[in-house]
Amino acid sequence: MEFTSIPKMARAVTVPWTREHRLIALNVYGKLPFSKLDQRTPLIAEIASKMGRSASSLAMKLGNFASLDPLLQKRGIKGLSGASRKDREAWAEFFDDLDTLAPESESLLHDLFTTDISREVDLLERRAVRLVVDRTSSGETETLAVTKQRRGQQYFRQTLLNAYGIRCCISGIEIPRLLVASHIRPWSQFPQHRLDPSNGLCLSTLHDSAFDSGLITLDEKLRVVLSPKLKAHFPHKLLEQNFGAFEGSTVQMPHQLAEPSLDGLKHHRESIFQS
């Protein structure tokens, strides 16, 4: 009997993990829930293809980054065990310098899909990458500084909304157009915390406005507290439905990366809340 040898499979080309690819992966990590960090997730396959990588390569890198996420560790969730020294260094550098690296990572992700600066990459639908028109863009006349600020805000919003499962942490509203990445410490006063996910809460536009103006806050146990100036308008059906119903309730916690800063909330109670 004559046997025919089986031809050897061609080895897959190994694409090195550059600094830029790690920045893109860190950006994507913040915008996907842990349950979606899988090579079978279409969005991961789509982004990996644009990077010239396999879906399994990107998914493994995201799983390695998950092992470094302190909030997942606190919840007893483990990522993959293959995080390298460079992965750990990239993670530390990224979150130590979000003001610079978050906008840079957003621009790198953007440029994978388009050169149109008036459009931004939106991952919130999770089924596929969407290119959406950014109405705050001034097009070709926009300065690099303005683009950097806009890209930073884009990163902050998508990362924060994802961390809270794309729903208001007080009311549970889950319509993205009605949600705001609300800053705990004000944007204008604390530039070093502008893009830090732990300096944010995912709130409905109504609750964001109330939080920003000091009509509501959160106590040390993350329970909703109403200002006497708000309660002075009770009884009022809509106010009681939208605020009174949640007084004393604990807000929904983020799934990953963005546990709200207790120091930031203390500042909000002491300096912004109308007690």
Automatic annotation (TrEMBL):
GO molecular function: endonuclease activity
Any matching Pfam family: HNH_2
Keyword entries, A-Z: Endonuclease, Hydrolase, Nuclease
Keyword Hydrolase listed: yes
Domain (HNH nuclease) ranges: 168-219
Annotated InterPro entries: HNH_nuc
Descriptive protein name: HNH endonuclease
